[in-house]
Amino acid sequence: MSVSDLVKRVHHTAICVQDFDAMRGFLVDFLGFAIDGEIPERSEAELSAVVGLPDVSLRWGLYRCGDHRVELFHYFRPEGKSLPPAQCDTGFTHLAFEVSDVHEAHERSIAAGYRPNSEPQSMRGGVSQVFYLQGPEGLVVEFMQFRAEAPA
Predict the structure, then answer these.
(1) Where is the VOC domain (predicted)?
(2) How far apart are CA 48 and CA 42, in angstroms?
(3) Closest to 57 (Cα-Cα) out of 45, 72, 41
(4) Whole-number mean pLDDT of the chain?
(5) What phi, psi does 117 have (nearest 5°)?
């Protein structure tokens, strides 16, 4: 038994943060996400039931890029741990964006004060050029540009 016939599309990726304003600025001001909604404090009983935590109080935002959204949470109650994962750790590791010019994205990232891990690298025999960037709270963002034609 599967739910595959019920799934219409991927809606969002959720990220819990300590510094909501820094991550919001990164998404909206640097990456160009649109604001779908924001609530300064949510504490409804239904939210506690859905997330499986008692007496939840949090700040919430939903931000859209194309058809995908990123949902941000900052928990006032209960407090969580702040441990940014390494790329080799189990669980969510990064967000990836396809760009029209990976080298320009790299230059603008540095100009905006963000720290790429490397220069853009040619990957999979030249199929794509990629670099990772360290965002707020250790969020890793991948920028990728695909070659226009298939390899020979």
Answers:
(1) 9-146
(2) 10
(3) 41
(4) 92
(5) -75, -30
**Dist. CA 10–CA 119, nearest whole Å:** 30
Q: Where are the domains of the chain?
A: 12-77, 94-146
Alpha carbon distance 118, 13 (integer Å): 25
Q: Which of 3.40.50.1980, 3.10.180.10, 3.40.50.150, 3.40.920.10 is the CATH number of 12-77?
A: 3.10.180.10
Amino acid residing at 52: G
Instruction: Tell me the pTM.
Output: 0.86
Write out pLDDT tens, residues 56-83: 999 999 999 999 999 999 999 998 888 7
Decide if 137 contacts 18 (C-beta within 8 A): yes
| Maximum pairwise Cα distance, the chain | 58
The beta strand positions in 78-127, using DSSP E, are 94-98, 115-116, 121-123
